[in-house]
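Next up, a specimen:

>
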Amino acid sequence: QVQLVESGGGSVQAGASLRLSCTASGDAFNWRSMGWFRQTPGKGRELVAVVLGVRGGYTAHYADSVTGRFVISRDNAKNTVSMQMNSLKPEDTAIYYCAASNTLRTAPLEESEYDFWGRGTQVTVSS
């Protein structure tokens, strides 16, 4: 079983930056793909960014809406995945979830491909 704990959410004004972090328990962290999803009221979770594990070459993929503004990274020695969010916009307001997938080679883009989830952290961006 893998437990994921997010931190770093908060309330900021448009144009500001935030850094989210997620620490995972358990083994084999470097094998798993790690993603960040977000969810707004009344909508399903959408993938924001994912970084693959060692079999995927640690490549990263981003939603079009955040490309060029968000950067996902992982520290396998600390079992941590982070996401630097820059130039935040009001439409980035959501609950952000960290998720881990046992998919090894291809980027897991769908919510159903993830096996473990954190509880989420709120990000609020005001205009």
